[in-house]
């Protein structure tokens, strides 16, 4: 800008120059804003494309459902899937047995080192609804058990071993849900322990694979033994109804040296068909209530003998 002439002319020229400069700066600002907007729009489009491509190529997430996820060494539920992975034959399903009761069923006998290995062809249902290799202590996976350190050797392993010996082509599944110190009244149909058993069995899609129930309980009822047989009968009736298996085999084992309870347990086959009793008069215990390892092994074997008899094997 050149300044010449009188002051008024010079002021006029300065004013014109300022106006032009302001217009120029405004145009530049508008241009910058437009560029920024265009650049932001391009960035937005690019990000949208990236997210779209990611969504199109990303696999569906695996849920944490016990029916849809499993780790190495465990098997998903649904007996066909279990059998197929183990035998290659989807028609060869697990024979599943339910083990319930109190401390002797949960297992209180110390586990000898020679009996700590998993049992071939036998599985136990864990808390996540997966089949895992069965070994002592089976009640470790109970949803109603006492603390982990109290769970030791129960009758389930030797029961499954003898069932397998009778039918080597069959795989065995055990659902063990015992609670030490429980009374038979706590196993009523509307009680928590009973409901927990049904919850665990709900994971099993094919209810026909449930072949029987083993019961070992009664120690906590010795102070009030009256009516025990009626409660035991009702337990069997309720399980058969809720599982829609009217002839489901049910075997009850006697407890250690409690005559008033054992006499009622012995009467079970006289009041309900397709039931049996495991007798305990020749067995021994480590204390007033809990069977020693040899005796709990014997109960397991006797459970198997009676189950095979009920099934006509």
UniProtKB/TrEMBL annotation:
Molecular-function GO term, any one: hydrolase activity, acting on ester bonds
Domain Sialate O-acetylesterase, first and last residues per copy: 94-308
Keywords: Hydrolase, Membrane, Transmembrane, Transmembrane helix
Membrane-spanning intervals of the chain: 41-60
Annotated Pfam families: SASA
Annotated region described as Disordered, given as residue ranges: 62-84
Biased composition (Polar residues): 62-72
InterPro entries documented for this protein: Carb_Esterase_6, SASA, SGNH_hydro_sf
Name of the protein described by the UniProt record: Sialate O-acetylesterase domain-containing protein
